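Final report, Chapter 2: Outcomes

The project's central promise was a pipeline that accepts a single protein chain and returns its three-dimensional structure in a standardized token representation, suitable for archiving and comparison. That pipeline is now operational. To close this chapter, we reproduce one record exactly as it appears in the project archive, with the input sequence first and the structure output second.
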Amino acid sequence: MNRNFGRLLAVETMKARRAPVFAICTAIIVLAPALLAAAAILALRANSSSSFAAKARLLVHGTEWAGYVGTGAEVMAVAVLLCLGFGFAWCFGREFTEDTVVGLFCLPMGRGAIALAKCTVLLVWSVLVSIASTLVLLGVGLALGDLGSQPPRWWLPLGVCLLTACNTVPLAWLATVTRGYLGAVGGLIGLVVATQLVTAFGGGGWFPWAVPGLWAGFGGAGIQVGGIQFVLPVVVALISVGATTKRWRGRELGNA
């Protein structure tokens, strides 16, 4: 069983490595936060009157490490949700839209194990891109220079990335239920809209999909999160993995 599961992991890893969607999403997550945060800091330093500088003044709180890292974390909260969300939706949805799910019934491993292997590869990918994005953010910050002597809060962007990654796992279940990635993409858009609405009405601190952005200080909402609220996205991920695995395990060839 362990050997078979290792083979499943190898196959799913190969699919991910060869998929353009994973490469594009990885590049966006790793590069966009650092580049946008650096551009905002440079615009503030130049005291520019451009529209971008005006938006940067609303987004960035200070021109030192706290402001730079906080801005990067805010961008990460959005980029990770969208990009990893597309990754989860594609990984599970493609099996149905490309009619490859029927071939999975011929494998000697159970379908629940296949779903678990997919989730494992996607979660490992999430951790790796989160670490890479944080390192690039800090590296670009060092290259900017003159960000103050206070050490950067490196755990903020990393934590925001990881918690946001947990919030994307339900899209695997949604892609399975809707038998394609378009339904999951629609669900992703719905989550973005719901997060904005819940946060606007003051309930974002207890809405798992809003927790990472609020922690990063997104939109200057002023809502503090901590303690058990950080556990909510993790609970969402665990429940989603279990539900997705169960759904795959219960599928039959006739309703594949």
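Archive annotation: The CA atoms of residues 112 and 249 lie 4 Å apart.
This record, like all others produced under the grant, will remain available to the consortium after the project formally closes.
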